[in-house]
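Please, structure for the following, as tokens.
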Amino acid sequence: MVLMAPRSALRSLVTDLVTTSVIALVIFGVMVGLKTDTIPGGLALTPRWLAALEIVAVVVVGRLILHLTWWRRKPGAGASWVPAGIATGWTQGIALLAKVARPALLVFALTLPFLPFTDRYLLDLSILVLTYVMLGWGLNIVVGLAGLLDLGYVAFYAVGAYSYALLAQNFGWSFWLCLPVSGILAAFWGIILGFPVLRLRGDYLAIVTLAFGEIVRIVLLNWYWFTGGPDGLSGIPRPDFFGLPFDRAPGGFADTFGIEYSSLHRIVFLYFLILALALLTNYVTMRLRRLPIGRAWEALREDEIACRSLGLNTTTVKLSAFATGAMFAGFAGAFFATRQGFISPESFTFTESALVLAIVVLGGMGSQMGVVIAAVALIGGFEVFREFAQYRMLIFGLAMVLIMIWKPRGLISGRVPSIFLGARKPVSGDLVSQGEGH
């Protein structure tokens, strides 16, 4: 009887590993083991069974490691394998690290264009990362604070971009005049989306918001005389420094300040512009979170029925969350349009919404610093693995699965309460999931 338990466990382990290897072979044997190559007259299949078997071996070894470490718990140990004291210490340590890292990251961001190793590529990559940080902070209002799963966030991004492009081209408005208008129009569309989904929750809300994003993209694709259709809009005016263009002509930015002209001046200006917009988004979000409307968003996220029982108007709370998040997406869209100089519906597909949502979820819903870390990891990681284009999505899919297993509530799951008694201290993500600490 004593030996049967280990034998039974070993038999179960072997069965699980064999099943895992078969499933992995079926999946990766098709995805990786067979490659299509274009040849004269059609396509040809090139077998790559060795690469597929290597990936299967990695999957099986990873599964075995999980069996020997993560999933090896004592009966009755509970859902968490980390003692409460260690979990609390980990949360407080992360909070202290974040408190020190915030000013350091801000100083680094402000001085990045002037560092000796900074070049055009690094500035462009930093602008892209900051754009997604801003989008992540905007979506964090809807998903992280209000608890409303929005899969069509890219629609507001598109509204802001097309609003700026059309106003600048047809009416000659400057970027500084179009920027608030783009945010207001995106917020208006956020309210329009909010009204039909007031009674929806969870998966139903996600489906409707996904449909809204696709509707906006299809309208942009087919309304040819107004949006340019699939050809998009080109020749979008570039931003200037309060009326000073970044060119060699007399009266330009370099001539006015008496410095030598450089094409990097406009890139540095765009970097500081998106940095200022991102910091504005963060400041407004943090201020709103401490106001009654922010606490109403968090109450709605935890329990909508209890929120109503307290006398809160959930209609106003939901619409304000949609409108505020959409406004910041509109600002980011206007910046995207003026930076690219060209926009088309292909820039606003569902993939963009999924990427921004992944940044919010992986960073930790409701966590501002988590969004920054996730944006740097995902967007910067895409650039690092650019040479491995065939396996890039596979690698990031695997990374996200591992993070969700290791940190199911995101990289930074602890929260700092909006209202506290005595001293402000972070709350563990385990308590956050139960609606405590807010």
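Residues 187 and 317 are 14 Å apart (CA to CA). The chain has two domains: 9-68, 118-385.
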